[in-house]
Amino acid sequence: MDQDLPGGARLIVGVDESPASRWALAWAIGAARLHRMALVAVHVSRAPVHPFPEALPVQHAIRHGEETRCGEVVANVFDDVAGGMPEDLTTAVVARVGDPGYHLVDLAREGDLLVLGRGRRGLLSRLLLPSTSMYCARHARTTVVIVRQPAPPDDPQLSGERARRFWSRRHYQ
Prior knowledge:
Elements: E1 10-14, H1 19-35, E2 38-45, H2 57-82, E3 91-97, H3 100-107, E4 113-118, H4 123-128, H5 132-139, E5 143-148, H6 156-171
Parallel strand pairs: 1-2, 1-4, 2-3, 4-5
């Protein structure tokens, strides 16, 4: 699924199905338009890969199927965020299988901008899966932008109710 990557300074954005990734893609589209940079959307599947793909004939089919699914994921996220691939930007889609941090750092070269989303993760998730954004921040040879997923807004009626309860407990007892 790899396309010919554009030359010059590129904006590389890691894309997956998480809400934080959608925020990062939206930020990346805006930055690519502002700075007139080519946008490279990368999705890396964590599917298990045999270290010697030639040893297993079915491994090639598994890899090809995962790379096709990666392209579908990127297309769906672009549809959700921007209504499809932006016509005014030079875009490329890269699909890989393996460790996301390694592949993102490998694609980014000096002069590029690497954009990643960072969402909220539970303790178990942090223990089992390493943080891709932290890996890229430590190992990339280029500028890394980490876009945090915004906190959900509080319900104004609920927060007003909390304030009334606090006031009444504290001052009327």
